[in-house]
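Write out the 3D structure for:
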Amino acid sequence: MSSEDLPRVPSDSSTQTDDPVMEENIQLKSHIRELEVQLEKEKKRTSPQLTEKDKLHIAKEVLQKSAWSGQQISFFLEDKKRTKWSQEDLVLGLTLRGLSRKAYKFLRERKLLPLPGLTTLKDHIRHFTCPPGILNNVLNGIQLLVQLSVLKNQ
């Protein structure tokens, strides 16, 4: 077997070959790596860096499109200990609490729905007074609601 039959091994296999196609391939791969590094540097340089304030603003915009009130959004996004709940939030909390204490605690503790605390609800209804006896105004209101419901179903 002669030396011509053996495959040629370049002296420095990483940069020099006798095959022009292999040489071009090596050069192109090197150029691709350089371009990838340059691209990453440009991405870091030109990508907008969102501040925490910007992130909060974006989150508020998204949540405002939901059914949450402004106070619920603030309670959820801002880590405040105290929140000034709106009348609507308090009524929602009282209604849910009246239906099921377990459901109320579940939703509140898991932060599935921002709700006022039980003490806040108790403070809100502490001064609620109701005259003794039959409340004719309430009965009339319920009667109207029933009549409207019947009309809608016809």
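The helical segments are 20-46, 52-64, 70-77, 87-99, 101-109, 118-125, 136-153.
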